[in-house]
Structure to design on (242 residues):
């Protein structure tokens, strides 16, 4: 049986659009998703789940209604369930998201930036 | 409210022992754990869960009874539940594990290399 490592940067090179997370792996009921992001996302929350962000390249600010956290490459943060947040990247940034399968990028907010939650690369 | 990014390498610098995963974050029922590894671990399996390995530094081979996969830095692999495996690192290697809280490093095998499953750094 051939087993193939999942190379994060090789996978990321296949992503052409911003703010469209692509699934690269599944562990139990969770998906690992890569996303290229730049600019301001929408304010949203995920009422049923926490959401883990690991920055691989660039810098990501996650705004909250009462503050913010900025992640550089190699930094992780877990947004608790139900907490409104807005990711913002002043430069293009590559992130790895870990969250339950089916989690929608815009959470409860919806809108134009909503991406399919089942797209693999 | 102050929110602090979790810097993987700064956390890893606090780990002195090999093969002793330390928890750095929780997402829902999963833990993110860092481990420094070198040499050969024990053959084991986790009958109730998959286990995700992300190599941050160095190179890790995961042996299976019918083959192996080698991960370099920036590569991810998910070992399916119930599959016997043995991690081997010829040079010291830093890995990020993502698995359910309470998962024991030696799985069903036990033995001297069994580490506490609830140690945070």
């Amino acid at each position: 049986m051939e087993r193939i490592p999942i190379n994060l940067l090789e996978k990321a090179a296949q992503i052409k659009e911003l703010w469209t997370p692509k699934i690269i792996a599944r562990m139990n009921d969770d998906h690992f998703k890569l996303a290229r992001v730049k600019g301001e996302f929408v304010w949203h929350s995920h009422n049923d789940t926490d959401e883990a962000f690991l920055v691989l390249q660039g810098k990501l600010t996650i705004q909250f209604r009462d503050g913010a956290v900025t992640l550089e490459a190699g930094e992780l943060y877990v947004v608790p369930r139900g907490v409104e947040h807005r990711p913002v990247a002043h430069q293009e940034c590559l992130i790895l998201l870990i969250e339950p399968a089916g989690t929608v990028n815009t959470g409860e907010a919806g809108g134009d930036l909503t991406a399919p939650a089942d797209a693999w690369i």
User: Anything to note?
Assistant: The two ends of chain A are 21 Å apart (CA to CA). The beta strands of chain A are 6-7, 22-27, 30-40, 51-57, 59-64, 67-72, 75-79, 85-100. The interface with chain B takes residues 1-9, 24-28, 30, 32, 49-52, 56, 64, 66-72, 74-78, 81, 98-100 of chain A (CB under 8 Å).
